[in-house]
Structures are given as structure tokens and as C-alpha cells.
Amino acid sequence: MNRMRRSERLRKGFLFGVSLLTLGILAAQQGPLTSAQGPSRDAGETVARPKKKAEPPPAAARPKRNPLPADLPTFKAESNVVTVDVAVLDNRGNFIPNIPRDKFLILEDGVPQKIVNFGPSEAPMTVCMVIEFSNLYQQYWTESWYQTLTAAYGFLETLRKEDWVAVVAYDLRPEVLSDFSQNKRTAYEAMQRLRIAAYSESNLYDALADTLDRMKEIEGRKAIVVIASGVDTFSKLTFDKARQIVQTGGTPIYAIGLMQALREWYDARGAMGPIQRMDFLQADNQMRTFAKESGGMSFFPRFYGEFPSIFGQISSSLRNQYGVTYQPTNAARDGKFRKIKVQLVDPQTNKDLRVVDQKGKNIKYTILAKAGYVAPREVE
Fold first, then answer.
1. Distance separating alpha carbons of residues 322 and 330, to the nearest angstrom
2. Which pLDDT tens digit goes with each residue over 183-214?
3. Who is most buried in 18, 23, 74, 154, counting CB within 10 A?
């Protein structure tokens, strides 16, 4: 009897366990239990319900703007000022300071202009070195090759840590070796490529035009230092076209003509014919013209010892300048070229200003300024 009761209890317990297992399997298949009011959540849990997006009011309900009167007058304001960086140097290339404002006379197309802003300033330089490097004159381990590298590396050493410098080499076409940077090490590493030239062409005009176009958007004190023979062999541009680009480029050019002593050495020994001699004279004249009409300077050293003084003059003329701003009397927006001439005059006599040194002796001075600018065009 006891054995039968025990078997009955075991059978009922087994059936109850099977029922619980079946309910668990069904619950896992159907997922969590839900109610008619929405998803279930634990105590303290909230359900974020999406908010209705605010709709704009209909067009009829929006406030209307009052129309402008047809006879309302319109006004148009135009302001055009010209800034000229002027450097006044003595016969040794040193900057002459402390020149008063009333001593400066600005002429635009021969008409005197009223100066509205004036002041001396000193600023870092932004210089692009344009170096001729072709098989025409820079063949490996020749005298002109050595002179080119001496001038280029020597100028880099004179720059300060706040100056910006870029390096461009040209033969058949210009190539940017290093972009503008204050790290001179970048320029030194880029110039390691100046070892063996690739082409025998020297396209100076195209190189200058390309560099001037790249420097148009640069603000502040900027200049191009050209280290070249000045000979152009195969440029797409003519000299006249290149000269116009230089005049309107707004960037002074400092030209260093190479091979001066070497040319004289060959000429003295009859190794240079009249055509070649004329080519070199024309090359010097081109370099001199580009420098003068852009507001820069030109140098034609014969000895290596002249390089330090040349670099000093370039630095002095770029860092120390007078900023002169005037509003042109000719307000026509015709896109024409306007010539600029800067003079130092005595206001009482209207004659050229006499500058003397500490001993009362006259000082011959040179005024460096851009030759002109292109007037803006009318914008419809």
C-alpha cells in the first residue's frame, strides 16, 4: 500500500514538472507578455513617445511684408584706396629713416594725390626664390653652377625665423621645389635637388609670370629674388607681355645677374662673339627692367665677396619701408593701368628734398616703389 501511494506521488510530481517546462518553452517562443495599453516595462522605467512635429502655419495665416515704395532712392558706396610701399635707400643701400609725411609726393599719371595714411613699418619678409637651373649655364660642377648654389644658399642664411620663403627652379618650365614655410630646413632639403640639370632651355619670362600669379593673393611684405643669367630661350611669352605682367603684378623683383666676371674673362680672350655678347647685354637689361618697374633692385656681382652686401640691401629695403596710402582723384573704374611716381620734395620750395648726413654732406638716395597699378573694373 505504501509503495502504491509513493508511486502515485511520483507520477503526479513528474506531470507537474512537465507542465512547467512546457509553459516555459511557449513563453520563450512568444516573447514577453504584452498588455493592451502598450509594451510592458519595469518599475521606474519610462517609455519615450515620439512628439508630433510642429507644422508651419498656412500661408494665409502668415504676416505679410509691406512692399517697398517704387520711388524709394537707392544708394551705392564705392571706396578705392591705393597703398604703396616705399623704400628710401642711400648710395650704400641703407634705409633712410625718419622722413616726415609732408616730404612725400605721390603722382598718379602726373597728378598729385592726397595722402590719407602714412607710417614707417618693419615686417617679416615673404620671399620666393626663383633660381635658373638648366644645362644652358648650370652644368654639373661648372663655375656658373657653383655660383648659382652659392648665391641661393647664401641668401637663405640671411633670413630670420619669422620670414617665409619658397623655392622655385626653372629650366624648360618652373617647378616649385618647396612651398612657403618658416622652416628654412624645408628649403635646404628642397634645394638638394639642384645637382644635375635636366633641360637646356631657360624660360625666364614664363617662370616670372607663373610666380607672380601665385603670389597675387599673398598679403604683406613680399618679394621675388631672381638668381639667373637673365637669358630667355624658349618662353611662350614675349618680353613685352612679361613686362606688363611684372608691372601689374604688385610684387617687387630683386634680380641677381650671374656670370659677370666669367663673361668678361671669356670676352677678354676672344672666346665670345658679338652675337653672344649682345645676348648677355640684353639679358642684363631685361633683369634691370623687371626689377626697376616692379619696385625692386638689380645687382650684377663680379666677386663672391659682394653677395653679403647684396643680401643686406635686399633685407633692408624689404623690412624697412614707408606705407603710403592715398585715394585716387581719378575714380573711373575702367581697368586701365595707372602710373605711380613717388618723390621727396621740400613743401616750401616744391623742389627735390635735400638729404644730408651727420656731417652735413648731401646723400644720394634712391626711391623704390611700384611703377603703377591696374584700376578696378565696373561691376554690374
1. 23
2. 999 999 999 999 999 999 999 999 999 999 99
3. 154
Residues 191 and 307 in one domain: yes
> Backbone dihedral region of 329: left (phi > 0), alpha (psi from -120 to 50 degrees) or beta?
alpha
Determine if residue 2 is left, alpha or beta; phi over 0 gives left, psi from -120 to 50 gives alpha, anything else beta: alpha
Give the domain extent around 95. 82-121+324-374
pLDDT, tens digit (0-9, with 9 covering 90-100), for 63-107: 555 555 555 554 444 568 998 989 999 888 888 999 999 999 999
Containing H/E element for 144?
helix 143-157
Structural domains of the chain, count: 2
What gap in Å lies between CA 152 and CA 58, rounded to an integer?
72
Residue 252 resides in a domain: yes
DSSP result, 331-350: ---B--EEEEEEEEB-TTT-
- Considering the domain architecture, whether residues 202 and 128 belong to the same structural domain is answered as yes
In a domain, 94, yes or no: yes
Residues 32 and 36: their CA atoms lie apart, in Å, by 13
Enumerate the β-bridge partners of residue 325.
83, 117
Quick check: is 45 in a domain?
Answer: no
Average of per-residue pLDDT across 122-144? 94
Query: CA angle at residue 105 from 99 to 107, to 5 degrees?
Result: 150
Do residues 189 and 313 both lie within one domain?
yes
Cα 106 to Cα 84: distance, rounded to the nearest angstrom: 9
